[in-house]
């Protein structure tokens, strides 16, 4: 399934702060901690808890979020289907990065071991 230009635009303009509470709810509902959520995001982007909180306060878009990120060199190992899209087939770099994040959070919520999530 290929993403459309409209879909890619919607991902780029999505505000990180508006999605953050959903991430927190998703992982905590499944018995994981917010500290683990921060760990997963830091592994993918290089952003620590303080920086993530700054981004939430700034109300940045996903485009800005990923422009500022230093993506983990092992991010390409994140594979599978998320939100109806096979990550390996997404051609838009920003949308692919956003789906990497979605996939990691989904794996965390599903109880996957942290060393597997972090591709160690």
UniProtKB/TrEMBL annotation:
Gene3D superfamilies, alphabetized: uncharacterized protein sp1917 domain (1.10.8.290)
Domain of life: Bacteria
InterPro entries: SP1917_dom_sf, UCP033199
Pfam family, one: DUF2200
Protein name: DUF2200 domain-containing protein
Organism from which the protein derives: Polaribacter haliotis
């Amino acid at each position: 399934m290929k993403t459309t230009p409209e879909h890619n635009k919607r991902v780029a303009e999505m505000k990180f702060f508006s999605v953050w509470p959903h991430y927190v709810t998703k992982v905590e509902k499944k018995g994981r901690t917010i500290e683990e959520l921060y760990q997963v995001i830091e592994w993918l982007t290089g952003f620590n808890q303080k920086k993530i909180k700054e981004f939430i306060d700034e109300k940045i878009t996903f485009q800005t979020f990923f422009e500022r990120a230093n993506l983990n060199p092992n991010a390409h190992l994140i594979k599978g289907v998320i939100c109806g899209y096979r990550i390996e087939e997404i051609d838009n770099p920003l949308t692919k990065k956003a789906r990497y994040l979605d996939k990691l959070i989904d794996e965390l919520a599903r109880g996957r071991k942290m060393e597997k999530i972090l591709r160690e």
